[in-house]
Amino acid sequence: MDAVNPRGGWIEVITGGMFSGKSEELIRRIRRAEIARQRSQIFKPAIDNRFDLKRVISRDNRGIDAVVVNNAAELRSSLLFGVKVVGIDEVQFFDEGIIDVCMELADASVRVIAAGLDQDYLRRPFGPMPGLLAVAEYVSKMHAVCVRCGGPAHYTQRVAGGNSQIEIGDGTYEARCRVCYEPYQATETSADDSREPRDVTITR
Ligand SMILES: [Zn+2]
To answer: Which fold has domain 10-142?
Structure first.
């Protein structure tokens, strides 16, 4: 998204399933903004500890420094003066307040680029994503490659773990297309009885 009103702000959402290149695309856009000498900041929620707490790292291992925040209000209070571009990774983990923050920023002539999962492992709209997608000027739906058939994958298939909405761990998910997607049910041997805060299970 490079050619829009240079004086105005706007919201871009990069969305899709896991393994679809959302973080790579976010990093690409932020790097271009930095080359254009636009002051930028990138945020991520504290919940995502997959790789490295302080960096947004795509699966091809290209990283960019990020500010880790606990919620939308903390993001707002962490903004630098004069910032022109704000990137947000894993935006689906934020509270609904993130929509208002994105709108305030865009209204204040800031370019907002938010990347996140559109659906959870049961294909339910994820967290604040429906509202964010509705107010965004630009939406990029990314597709992964289905591990079963090689077609474009629209879904994140859970293949291991419990029934929490958020489960973080290697080998827990696969990209699947509509034909190959199967609703996941945890088996009785899965450790899904432990109700952790925010319904999160992290297996590593
Ligand atoms: Zn498939």
So the answer is: Rossmann fold (3.40.50)
